[in-house]
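input
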Amino acid sequence: MRNRFEGKRVLLSGGASGIGEATAERLAQEGAHICIGDIDLKGAERTEQRLGGNAFAYDARDPESASNLVASASAAMGGIDVLLNIAGIMTWGRFEETTPAAWQRTLDINLSGPFYLSQAALPELKASKGCIVNVASVGGVHPVYGTAAYGISKAGVIAMTQAASLEWARHGIRVNAVAPGGVATPMHEKSTAGGGVDPAIFAEAAGRNMPKLTDRDACTPAEIATAIAYLASDEARYATGTVLILDGGQSTG
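output
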């Protein structure tokens, strides 16, 4: 594996499990110094102990927590070259059934969290002419039945990615996003199996979103990590405002 991130200082949210953990592992293998922020501090510390780096408590709903995380990571690494906004939650529920609490929590974690963290990291990224990769979703590109709040939050992530890429290009900062379809992560399993989801919603969603690569295994966190690593690397130096869809053909269904 090439050392594309040798000497790079990477701040990553959501590294306790799933895509975040896989991405931390991938970039650490390529030489990066990793700082992980996660509301699951014990999980983040397990990842950090396995890979090296640092782990800090981070609540994506709280702007002050974002500022504290950036300050802690910058102090630990001497600056920030790459910001990866990966922390997020999956929310199931038809439009009319989505409660105010579920709506607000979904927007807070999936959209406001990346906004606060990107805003807080801007001075560090300006100094390093660094980059940001956000994790959106194919649900933000087109609607996925029964996930109104989730899809709207991820559509916001895509809009934020493009707005930031436009505004921050003058600072030499690239901002891109990946938009996965279904990925075999603990978050996905928890949200669909025993997670309080109406089975009828899930069955209807499966019937309305038809992946074309039906003979293949589910997408893995490591595969999404590969895409994130590309967008965060100098190999993608001419990519900004890009939304890379990895959904097995779901968006064509």
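quick obs: The beta strands are 9-13, 33-38, 54-57, 82-85, 131-135, 174-180, 243-246.
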